[in-house]
């Protein structure tokens, strides 16, 4: 991205509760335009499970988004189970998710900048993410932040999905003390 264009992009981080209804609606609209998410209850899911939302603004226009998401436990176990690494779900409760850039702004490093800001804001934690297995650009962005491909590629809604993980805290477990229950549920999946 040229320096002038970089200067025109403002990155903003907010908790969903700090966002206006208009910002949430625009976040969801851009996310839906990307075509990779389930549209059912998406706005409610963003509000309930979004921990930090990242926006790239050009003036008043939102041109890129990403988030730290704290998904439901069953979702985490399901993702790791599909990748045939369910036993490892216990180490991950945060996901880098909902990464999307408006088509006319792609290839300018916005997604990389948004993910970098999110990882800096919520540092020292283990993260996972999923992306379309053939999306080399996203995989390159994630591996640039020390994520690794993890487990097997699995069937998504319309395309194969790759799980990626970034484990920086070897002692991290789910904070609410449910780790033994998650581990037991994960063992049932792989048995």
Describe the structure in your own words:
- There is one protein chain.
- The chain has 191 residues and is of the alpha+beta class.
- The protein has a single domain (3-190), classed as Aminopeptidase (3-Layer(aba) Sandwich).
- The chain is 37% helix and 26% strand.
- It has 7 helices and 8 strands; from the N terminus they run H-E-H-H-E-E-H-E-H-E-H-E-E-E-H.
- Strands 1, 2, 3, 4, 5, 6, 7 and 8 form an 8-stranded mixed sheet that branches.
- Strand 4, helix 5 and strand 5 form a beta-alpha-beta unit.
- The N and C termini lie far apart (49 Å).
- Series of H and E elements: HEHHEEHEHEHEEEH
Write down the overall mean pLDDT: 86
CATH architecture: 3-Layer(aba) Sandwich
Termini distance? 49 Å
Helix segment tally:
7
Principal-axes shape call: globular
Q: Which percent bin holds the helix content?
A: 25-40%
